[in-house]
Design a protein that fits this description.
A 5-stranded parallel sheet has the order 4-3-2-1-5, with helices on both faces. The chain has helices at residues 16-30, 61-70, 79-84, 101-110, and strands at residues 2-7, 35-40, 74-78, 97-99, 113-114. It has a single domain (2-114), classed as DsrEFH-like (Hypothetical Protein Ychn, Chain: A). It is of the alpha/beta class. Helix 1 runs parallel beside helix 2 (61-70).
């Protein structure tokens, strides 16, 4: 089964990115046959910035993305959204790819389920 999770919110401030990635990580753990696709758009593209330094005991989106990637999940960030925030040229977390709305639309029609955050 292929599951797509688009994320729209910034990594911190609300817990949407945290909850989306918690769901993704649980899906990978409990259902190893699931193909997980994460698409970062709008302010969520900042989830892919490396070297996040959060207080001890607080969730860390960078570590969560790395966990998804380590288990074979795919993570892509909207290039237009990166451009709009002036961060296209910044390094992203290893494994996160720059993508576009065309690829998101393809992932959407190929997905068996889509959860949005």
């Amino acid at each position: 089964m292929k599951i797509l999770i688009p994320i729209n919110d910034a990594p911190y401030g609300t817990e949407k990115a945290n909850n989306a990635l918690r769901l993704g990580i649980a899906l990978q753990k409990d259902h190893p046959n699931v193909e997980l696709l994460i698409f970062l758009m709008a302010d969520a593209v900042t989830c892919a910035l490396p070297n996040q330094n959060t207080p001890q005991g607080y969730y860390n989106i960078e570590r969560m993305l790395k966990s998804v990637l380590a288990k074979g999940g795919k993570v892509k960030a909207c290039g237009t959204c990166l451009d709009a925030r002036g961060i296209r040229k910044l390094q992203l977390v290893d494994g996160v790819e720059v993508s576009n709305i065309t690829e998101l639309s393809q992932w959407t029609v190929e997905a068996d389920k889509v959860f949005t955050f």
